[in-house]
């Protein structure tokens, strides 16, 4: 116990004190005989009588209240309220008040069983005609905002008088075993302190405003009452029932039977005792009043004392010796010391308190105190054995002298060590967040403390919770060598892979994966983890991918091929020529599956890849054919059937590719095909070269397949209308010897086949010119066999002739009609004078103007007409630019992880995979932004579009600038009609963007996104008045450039560029 207050005696004998009031260093006494006396007590205890009014009242002064801010004294005497001006001491507190105070002071008086309310305003005490009827005469009153707490003889109740509507809530009974009057006062944070037996119960009155009064009273113990009212402070026990209460932060001064007791509201540091000081010599006290912080006046019947707070620095020293840290901190908060010194002392006390709690093995509470002290995480980690690799850094010392004891640290083992580490994890997690914010705000590049914190957290997680190791390692701040050593010691190979990956040690990671893949029981057993790792590396690490995919492809070719065919952007962007070269050299069996995926799934149109796939198919088919030629034994019949099925499968794939694909070079692949076999495939290639005679010779004279020959002619008839004539000529003029060595001519076509010729003539009569085919027909062919063909030809010729005659007549009639319309239009006259105005430009026509008249009668300048025609084409190019910007913005948001990846869906645009948002609020924002951008772009007023990634306080992380030159309408007939070149440029731009953004550092979690449009002030004003864009208003941004400090680095990274369709777009990143 220490001395918190010292006592000064002011008055020992003289008057009969009935009531007291105080403010500052002054105390006002109201006597039984109606006198008012005012004393002043300085800091040294010297007493001075400032005023003595012996005729203030004829009756006893029962109660007084001071409002020092307004120099008002409210006095209750002889059932009347007097309001005095305490600034006029020389006039003995005149009743005239001349303050300019305009606020309302509310006054509540207990008149028997009623609460009557008054208000003081403009020197007048008036009543608002509002009162509350009570069930009994109140013994104590306390006002809290719009709440009034009333203490009866047997219970406490609270009234809510907001809006002059009364709501009653019962609190607790006053006492269950003592016949004493209730007492109450306001504590800290507007908490209400009420007495109950030997306890002070702290109540939050606001909690009762949300409850309905259930008319129930708690008659049980104080603990039950405390639970029901959900107080934040536990009931405080006193030596005897409370008779009076005063709150003087941070102490509660209470009058008990044996004198005064000073107590601290909360548990006092390590000790749970709340008693601070006992003053038994003031056991005769009847009145207590607090006049100022640290000053309390106490009065008996005829005695008066001043109770002053002892100097805080003296108390603090005593409290630290007694290990009452909480009270020492509270007193330091209210001290008058400089703020910097005060903050430093409080921090040191928290540190002392934390170490004491740690010594007592109260680890969670200790870490809370360390956090309050903003302790250096390094000093806290030093308290734990084997957590720091380097402990050479000296321990921070405080400024307290040697009389304040220090605490020996305990040896932590078993359960204590586990509890301590769990508490340390919570402390370090909070310290890490603060350090990250500090590094970001100061833009410092030193991360040594963050590395220590993360490395220590890693060691703690290894001892407590393995599941948290992987998320920590992905933050990439752990000390590499120390963390590597620790993870190997605990055999955490999966987590070690993450450590290597986040630190860019990919070779080490892949070597470890290869070594662990063959160890049974290892978490990395097998090749699946290696496949996923290689898929994420990207083209910048192509050599590593090729090197370490080799063993996976050997172990499991089918699964290993996923390294190069998985549906990831990183995998799809790998250079396919390099991958193909690797597979051809080391794993030739996988070339065909790889190329099939690239061509059939990714729709790659590269001619080289198509040529290689055709060649691989050809080699596979030839190999199988050779093997089948060798296997002629009956014993291998089953194996031969299986190979035949495989041969048919690959030959079908080759045939379909040659038939469907238009991306291979037929002249190149033809050189590899044999001339004595695979003639159907050769025919397809020759067909691509437009060598119809050779194709039909293969189909007719070698294969004897008239059906395929006819199908070929039907397919190519639009390109060459003589192709059926070539077919008949081939049948009617057979070759004398085969066109290729090693093959035989078909026996049915060694001589002209009249039956086939007649069938073809009858079936395709309208497609075969009789003038061309007639000289080739055999002279001995009976004419009746040609009757059907000739009848069809003649009827067709006559129908065409009749159709041409009708068409000619119709055209003549149409010409006559149009000539009449032209004459009618030429007869139309109109007048252009000095008052005529062009509806497009609103300008008058000059004498030399060239003009155009529209069918509706509008007359415009020729230049205005040209502009209108160009504008119709410009709208189309504007929509293309807007779509382009939408795709680029979605890609940036996805690649930079501004939003969760779950809100993006993979789509194929510009013949390449892109990620597009499916989140409605984001889509709505982008739609409205691009709608506004389209309006500016259409009017050639958009200078630049900026996508900013920034922090809440507007600090910019990254700015993506899209510089757009004003688009010009393009001619579809001359400029990329099918947008093929434009699509190629967009595809290349998206791949380039993915590569460049992948290497940028990860954005913080608080990154936000917005779009800015740069235009002219005139355009912005015009746009703001456009009624079609009022539902999405824009604000004018502050574009003043901030000065760049020497330490701040700004980098400009070209992102992509597009020059096609008269579009010129440049994209840059500013970091």
Automatic annotation (TrEMBL):
Domain HORMA intervals: 875-1070
Span of domain CNH: 14-295
Main location per the UniProt record: membrane
GO terms for biological process, alphabetical: autophagy; endosomal vesicle fusion; intracellular protein transport
CHCR repeats: 562-740
GO CC, alphabetical: endomembrane system; lysosome; membrane
Annotated localization: Endomembrane system; Lysosome
Membrane topology field: Peripheral membrane protein
InterPro entries for this protein: Clathrin_H-chain/VPS_repeat, CNH_dom, HORMA_dom, HORMA_dom_sf, Vam6/VPS39/TRAP1, VPS39/TGF_beta_rcpt-assoc_1, VPS39/TGFA1_Znf, WD40_repeat_dom_sf
Record key words, sorted: Lysosome, Membrane
Family stated for the protein in its record: Belongs to the VAM6/VPS39 family.
Protein name stated in the entry: CNH domain-containing protein
Taxonomic placement: Eukaryota, Metazoa, Ecdysozoa, Arthropoda, Hexapoda
């Amino acid at each position: 116990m220490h001395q918190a207050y010292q006592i000064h005696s002011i008055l020992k004998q003289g008057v009969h004190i009935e009531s007291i009031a105080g403010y500052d260093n002054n105390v006002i006494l109201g006597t039984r005989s109606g006198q008012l006396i005012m004393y002043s007590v300085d800091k040294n205890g010297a007493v001075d009588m400032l005023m003595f009014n012996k005729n203030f009242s004829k009756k006893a002064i029962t109660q007084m209240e001071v409002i020092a801010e307004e120099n008002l004294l409210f006095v209750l005497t002889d059932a009347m309220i007097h309001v005095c001006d305490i600034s006029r001491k020389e006039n003995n507190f005149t009743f005239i008040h001349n303050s300019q105070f305009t606020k309302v002071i509310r006054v509540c008086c207990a008149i028997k069983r009623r609460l009557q309310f008054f208000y003081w305003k403009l020197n007048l005490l008036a009543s608002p005609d509002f009162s509350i009827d009570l069930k009994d005469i109140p013994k104590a009153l306390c006002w809290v905002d719009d709440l009034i707490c009333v203490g009866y003889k047997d219970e406490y109740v609270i009234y809510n008088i907001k809006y002059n509507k009364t709501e009653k809530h019962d609190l607790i009974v006053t006492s269950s075993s003592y016949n004493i009057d209730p007492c109450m006062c306001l504590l800290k944070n507007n908490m209400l302190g009420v007495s109950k037996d030997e306890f002070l119960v702290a109540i939050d009155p606001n909690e009762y405003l949300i409850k309905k009064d259930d008319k129930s009273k708690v008659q049980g113990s104080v603990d039950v009452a405390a639970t029901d009212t959900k107080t934040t402070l536990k009931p405080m026990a006193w030596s005897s029932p409370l008779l009076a209460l005063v709150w003087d932060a941070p102490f509660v001064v209470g009058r008990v039977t044996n004198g005064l007791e000073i107590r601290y509201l909360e548990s006092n540091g390590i000790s749970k005792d709340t008693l601070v000081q006992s003053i038994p010599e003031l056991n005769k006290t009847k009145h207590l009043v607090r006049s100022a912080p640290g000053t309390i006046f106490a009065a008996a019947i005829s005695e008066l004392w001043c109770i002053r707070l002892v100097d805080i620095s003296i108390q603090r020293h005593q409290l630290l010796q007694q290990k009452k840290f909480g009270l020492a901190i509270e007193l330091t908060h209210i001290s008058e010391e400089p703020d910097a010194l005060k903050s430093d002392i409080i921090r040191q006390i928290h540190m002392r308190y934390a170490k004491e709690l740690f010594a007592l093995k109260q680890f969670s509470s200790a870490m809370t105190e360390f956090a309050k002290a903003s302790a250096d995480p390094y000093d806290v980690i030093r308290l734990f054995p084997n957590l720091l690799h380097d402990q050479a850094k000296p321990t921070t010392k405080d400024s307290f002298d040697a009389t304040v004891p220090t605490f020996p640290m305990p040896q932590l083992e078993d359960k204590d060590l586990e509890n301590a580490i769990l508490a340390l994890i919570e402390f370090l997690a909070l310290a890490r967040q603060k350090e990250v914010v500090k590094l970001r705000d100061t833009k410092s590049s030193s991360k040594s403390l963050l590395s220590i914190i993360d490395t220590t957290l890693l060691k703690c997680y290894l001892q407590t919770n393995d599941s948290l190791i992987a998320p920590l390692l992905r933050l990439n701040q752990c000390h590499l060598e120390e963390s590597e050593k620790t993870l190997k010691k605990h055999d955490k190979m999966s987590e070690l892979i993450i450590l290597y990956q986040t630190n860019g040690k990919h070779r080490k990671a892949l070597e470890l994966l290869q070594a662990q893949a063959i160890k049974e029981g290892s978490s990395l057993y097998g090749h699946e983890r290696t496949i996923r790792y290689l898929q994420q590396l990207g083209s910048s690490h192509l050599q590593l991918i090729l090197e370490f995919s080799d063993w996976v492809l050997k172990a499991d070719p089918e699964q290993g091929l996923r390294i190069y065919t998985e549906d990831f952007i990183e995998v799809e962007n790998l250079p396919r020529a390099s991958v193909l070269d690797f597979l051809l050299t080391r794993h030739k069996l996988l070339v065909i599956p790889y190329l099939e995926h690239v061509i059939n799934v990714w729709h790659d149109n590269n001619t080289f890849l198509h040529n290689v796939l055709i060649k691989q198919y050809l080699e596979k088919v030839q190999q199988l054919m050779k093997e089948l030629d060798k296997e002629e034994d009956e014993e291998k019949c089953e194996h031969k059937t299986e190979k035949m099925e495989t041969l048919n499968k690959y030959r079908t794939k080759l045939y379909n590719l040659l038939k469907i694909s238009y991306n291979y070079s037929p002249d190149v692949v033809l050189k590899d095909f044999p001339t004595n076999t695979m003639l159907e495939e050769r025919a397809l290639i020759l067909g691509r070269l437009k060598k119809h005679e050779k194709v039909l010779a293969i189909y007719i004279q070698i294969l004897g397949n008239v059906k395929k020959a006819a199908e070929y002619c039907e397919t190519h008839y639009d390109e060459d209308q003589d192709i059926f004539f070539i077919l008949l000529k081939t049948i009617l003029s057979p070759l004398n010897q085969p066109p290729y060595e090693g093959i035989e001519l078909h026996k049915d076509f060694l001589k002209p086949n009249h039956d086939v010729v007649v069938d073809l003539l009858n079936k395709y009569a309208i497609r075969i010119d009789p003038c061309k085919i007639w000289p080739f027909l055999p002279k001995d062919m009976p004419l009746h066999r040609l009757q059907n063909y000739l009848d069809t030809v003649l009827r067709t010729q006559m129908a065409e002739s009749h159709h041409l005659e009708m068409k000619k007549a119709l055209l003549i009639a149409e010409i006559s009609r149009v000539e009449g319309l032209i004459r009618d239009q030429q007869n139309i006259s109109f007048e252009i004078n000095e008052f005529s105005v062009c509806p497009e430009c609103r300008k008058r026509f000059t004498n030399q103007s060239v003009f155009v008249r529209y069918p509706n009668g509008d007359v415009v300048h020729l230049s205005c007409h040209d502009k209108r025609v160009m504008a119709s084409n410009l709208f189309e190019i504007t929509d293309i630019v807007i779509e382009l910007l939408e795709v680029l913005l979605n890609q940036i948001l996805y690649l930079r992880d501004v939003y969760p990846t779950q809100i993006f869906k993979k789509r194929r645009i510009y013949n390449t995979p892109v990620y597009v948002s499916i989140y409605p609020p984001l889509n709505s924002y982008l739609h409205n932004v691009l709608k506004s951008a389209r309006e500016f772009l259409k009017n050639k007023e958009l200078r630049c579009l900026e996508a900013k990634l920034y922090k809440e306080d507007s600090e910019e992380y990254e700015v993506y600038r899209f510089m757009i030159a004003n688009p010009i309408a393009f001619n579809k007939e001359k400029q990329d009609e099918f947008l093929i070149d434009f699509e190629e440029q967009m595809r290349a731009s998206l791949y380039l963007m993915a590569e460049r953004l992948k290497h940028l550092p990860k954005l913080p979690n608080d990154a936000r996104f917005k779009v800015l449009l740069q235009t002219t002030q005139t355009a912005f004003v015009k746009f703001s008045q456009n009624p079609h864009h009022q539902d999405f208003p824009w604000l004018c941004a502050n574009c003043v450039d901030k000065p760049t400090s020497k330490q701040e680095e700004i980098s400009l990274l070209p992102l992509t560029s597009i020059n096609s369709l008269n579009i010129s777009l440049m994209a840059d990143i500013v970091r």
